[in-house]
Please model this.
Amino acid sequence: MDSLDTVYTEATAGLQQAKTVTELEAWHRDVLGRKGSVQLATRTVGQLSPEERPVFGKRINEVKRSLSDAYEERLAALKAAELRAKMAAETLDVTLPGRRSYPGRVHPSTLTLREIYRIWGDMGFQVYRSRDVESDEYNFELLNIPAHHPARDMWDTFHTTTPGVLLRTHTSPGQIHAMHEYCPEPIRVILPGMCYRYEQITARAEIQFHQVEGLAVGQNITLADLKGTLADFARRMFGPETQMRFRANYFPFTEPSAELDIECFLCGGKGCPVCKYTGWLEILGSGMVHPTVLRNGGYDPALYSGFAFGMGVERIAMLKYGIEDIRYFWANDLRFLEQF
Ligand code: FA5
Model:
């Protein structure tokens, strides 16, 4: 009985010394566990007389209950104290204003592309998607640029390690894909997409940029249709007062060929570094589809004719929004992107 009282006294003192939940749980294991001090004390029952045993049993139960109750009480107090300390350490000020979320914006190239789709859509052209990775055959040969032809120098090309597979240098190979799909029906499509050129990067030239190709094939399509349609596009895109000029040029896949220039937005035609001091910015190449290309697409050039063009989307965006350097488009600078 004496040893049980000693166990009880020590256990009660130990309980007060437990300062954390972990320490208290260790106390519980050492005192009330299967091999704890209270359990060990019960073994002394064998040394007692039969009269003393029920008294001892009753006392054991009282000790167990009392220590268990004290444990529960202390556990609740320690948990509450730990929670209070945690809350004090991790103060949450619910009156602070929330963090602003920044919704994404449409990139200026996408904005311009959508405007281009809308205008050509209004004029009866539908979007035709073509691939970024092309074959030499479609990017050059079927467009009347054989392997030996010096015109290949016009497009500095990113070749892949697979012979004959390259990143398209222009959207023109899509013309052949569209002709193969539509022949012998008439065609009015635009073909948007990214083009890649192994070029010197400057204020007006990037190594990757968007183009929108256009292709119209049918009967009795003339150069007047090409000129009128492109002039209409330029006026719809830049406004009715837009100054533009057609300049004769050479492309192997069109004959005759012309480029369309728009008056430089930056200098108003006076001449500056962006327009290379010409007062004009070239936005597209165009021409009447070459008979060889029509034939490669499956159309008989004696019956069909057509026009095609390829416009630089970032160049158009530069003119429209007064952007003086094409490098801003892929620089990922929020100060630039947030303006759109
Ligand atoms: C072509 O790529 C021809 N395929 C266009 C064409 C299509 C002609 C159909 C006739 C018929 P060019 O290399 O000039 O042509 O490029 C067309 C337009 O893409 C240019 O007027 C310019 O606006 C844009 N462009 C060309 N190179 C770059 C570059 N490095 N960075 C940004 N824009 C460019």
In short: The chain has two domains: 2-89, 108-337. Residues 170, 172, 197, 199, 205-206, 209, 211, 213, 251, 254, 257, 282-287, 308-312, 314-315, 326 surround adenosine-5'-[phenylalaninyl-phosphate] (CB under 6 Å). The two ends are 88 Å apart (CA to CA).
